[in-house]
Write a structure and sequence with these properties.
The complex is a heterodimer of chains A (about 600) and B (about 325). Chain A is built from 21 helices and 22 strands. Chain A is an alpha/beta fold. In chain A, the strands form 5 sheets. Chain A has a 7-stranded mixed sheet with strand order 11-10-12-13-15-14-20, sandwiched between helices. A 6-stranded mixed sheet of chain A has the order 3-4-2-5-6-7, with helices on both faces. In chain A, strands 19-18-21-22 form a 4-stranded parallel sheet, with helices on both faces. In chain A, helix 13 (about 315-330) links the parallel strand 12 and strand 13. Chain B is α/β, with parallel strands linked by helices and about 325 residues long. Chain B contains 11 helices and 12 strands. Chain B has helices at about 25-35, 75-85, 95-105, 105-115, 160-165, 180-190, 215, 220-225, 275-280, 305-315, 320-325; strands spanning about 45-50, 65-70, 90-95, 120-125, 170-175, 195-200, 225, 235, 240-245, 250-255, 290-295, 330-335. In chain B, a hairpin with a 2-residue loop joins strand 9 and strand 10 (about 250-255). The longest helix of chain B is centred in the C-terminal third of the chain and has 15 residues, at about 305-315. Chain B starts with about 25 loop residues before the first helix and ends with a strand. In chain B, about 45% of the residues are buried. The chains are: A alpha/beta (about 600), B alpha/beta (about 325). Chains A and B meet through helix 1, strand 9, helix 10, helix 12 and helix 13 of A and strand 1, strand 2, helix 2, helix 4 and helix 10 of B. Strand 17 (about 460-465) of chain A pairs parallel with strand 2 (about 65-70) of chain B.
Chain lengths: ~600, ~325
Amino acid sequence: MTNKTSANEVVTIRFSGDSGDGMQLTGNQFSDNTAIFGNDLNTLPDFPAEIRAPAGSLFGVSSFQLQFGSREIFTAGDDLDVLVSMNPAALKVHLKDLKENGLLVINTDNFTPKNLRLAKYEDNPLENNDLEKSYRVIKVGMTKLVNTALDELDLTSKEKARSTNMFALGLLYWLYERNMQTTIDFLSKKFKKKPLIVEGNVKALKTGYYYGETIEAIKTTYHIDKANYEKGKYRNIMGNQATALGLLAASKINDIELFYGGYPITPASEILHYLSNYKSFGVKTFQAEDEIAGITSAIGAAFAGKLGITASSGPGIALKGEAIGLAIITELPLVIINIQRGGPSTGLPTKTEQADLAQAMYGRNGECPCVVLATSSPSDCFEMAYESCRIALEHMIPVILLSDGYIANGSEPWKFPEIKNINKFKMNFTNSNDDFSPYSHNKDTLARQWAIPGVKGLEHRIGGLEKANKTGNVSYDPENHHNMVLQRQKKVDIIENFIPKAEVYGESSGKLLVLGWGGTFGSIRSAVHKAVDKNLSVSHLHLKYINPFPKNLGDILVKYDKILVPELNLGQLLGLIRAKYLIDAKGFNKVQGKPFSSSEILNEIENYLKD
Amino acid sequence: MSDTTKLTKKDFSSDQDVRWCPGCGDYAILSQVQKVFPDLGIPRENIVIVSGIGCSSRFPYYMNTYGFHSIHGRAPAVASGVKLSNPNLSVWVVTGDGDAMSIGGNHFIHVMRRNIDMNILLFNNRIYGLTKGQYSPTSEIGKVTKSTPLGSLDYPFNPTALAFGSSGTFIARTIDKELKHMGAIIAEANNHIGTSFIEIYQNCNIYNDEAFSNLTDKEIKSDNVLILEEGMPMIFGKEKDKGIILEGSKFKVIDFNKQFSIDDALIHNPRDRNLGLILSEMTYDEDLPVPIGVLYKEDKPTYDIMMKKQIDIAKSKGITDLQSIIEGPNSWEVK
């Protein structure tokens, strides 16, 4: 059937089109299908902040990129092997990323004079053969083909045109020898009440698939072998989804009700959406009037003995600052999740960045230390969300979990756990009024007892004024204040005894350690792989615990001649590392609203080693 | 429940020294709350008092119940979290005019709108006390204070009218010096299922002394205060010789010594929303007395009960197997 099949090891594809063209859905469908097929993968959605930017405009272009393959995949890929462009604007924005001789799939029907003008093309790029000089091009009039295929269906022409993305998806499925069934199932479920829409979309999908099979123009199909996975059960998962599942697991496994107070904000809203679908587990979600009410209602829930959680992005976290301080001085458990986006101020709502680490560490009045954790990939969100709840509840302390837009919206296969193998928390509830005092502390964890309203005999008052140690009464005593400040710091510091030690990937000593945190995991790991392949002495350490740092971090750092810290900010982890360990680490920084490519990091590794 | 009958006023006093200025109206309110609480029949451990920031917000420290002195303006949001987490608790918010009407205005209107079952006591002294005497959002226009030496330019908020605008379901007013009246209103608020709002006029004898003297001085108060009672005519005056009638869409004072009689006076129906709206607007009208009592009340499903119902239904119908949720619909196995 196929002329030639090449077992490429990895492939990077980008779907691009107008923000109304359904590119995110197309990309997600291809990703889910790819995961089920058995490839490893990593995705990068990229869309404008405007829900419906003017059709055809350059800033209205939406794209979805994924890299998949038969070996371990850490990033969404750098240069593209395949670019699907549904309109001139998408072609204009993305063509520069397509490799020479890469495959370019174009929907020619959208190359109208108006769209060309909006994309600022003076001449129609399809009318000469320039594209063919650099790329392998498939030009298809997708919209018309779909319209013809759906001729007999009682759908409006607008509804028919909306299925065009399914044509593109079908064509890609054929190119990569995929089974269309996952998408057919998805469509049948999504449009359960509109069978005609299901029929139209499925027909468009199949039309694209058979088009690929039929036309002479396609000379090569692409067969990618399954990745070599560890044994076990897998699913494909997005970051915010995994975060919500981690929180749900913490609630269910430890039998503590989850209360989520939050206010909608990009790119954190999905956590609220997912959790509000788990009401059957007793999850309570409260869409508050603002960010402050989001967190303060969660603090109220924590006072009442529940697992209080709030999530937001940088601007919202800024508003929550005073309330985080309240949770710290009242020593209540609380999980605060920051899905970081480009800042400052409103910044780049749909783009990724790592510039809120300093905010998490220091963004409050007074000496106000908070536990800070960071998740490193979509599937890692599950474990880190669970860990955040564990530390909050076991230590009676607020925990900030940093994620970012790239992790939140990206997806990857996840070898999910058996819940019976997940450890339970040791919580601090008390019912006994023998020697109860609200601010007496456990000698190991420094957690205070959790006496909740409804428990007879333990009535007490807490609040934001400085507390006398043990009694919790308001105290303005200078010595007491000094001691309480020290105690709150110590309460964070000793958590280093309750978290895993840092583990280095690669040689345990050598010329260079690349030290990262958060969403740069994939780009760094991939770059380090390539560097090691080039016989360079490079190792990778990725921090998931930032305040406190793992106990052994200092011992690890001194074993390398050089430390490189790549971050999507101007050096926030770098500052912490240099200050704490007095080490001459070097930063590698980029703030463009997008992730590092692994080749950028590899270049930096090579240059730094030459210095 | 049997032990609760034994509780006394003393059981509700904490061991902390009360630190308000001598002569502050807050003392009277604290004392009255401590006196009324034993009669409410609520186990002490089920009572939670949440406050914000300001003089009034020190209140929880002096009550031997569960208490949370939170941050400026946020008490209704903290209290919402407490109540939604455990609907069995009796939740009380103590706040002031700056706390509730200024920095916390947003939370105030939204808790009223949601009708979460709690009681909000707003101590309105029309001044910022804890920060030493700036005008507040309920101060009269032209108020000369440290921050407004030439007089304030802000038109004041009317808390009861704002409560109406926020779809409040129990809107009442009382005065720090009217102890019995205050006690009765507090008890009635407690009985109301939904957000109960009580504005308590409270004298700040340091920064805004005698702000309410026309309503509290024995000689003149009867002529200036209209005590609202359900099913009773709206009458006032030392000799009970004045009443309220509706003329067009406005209230007007009538004199029984002239052509009117007590039978002409309006009968107070706290369930009449239109009447309540006009009552709430009386506050700043110099030709009319100031109404105290329950201006309006309404039975309406509460957010907390609706939330519980939704969850109960979801629990009985939805998926409760965590492993299946984690696994999702499209898992695969690598062997």
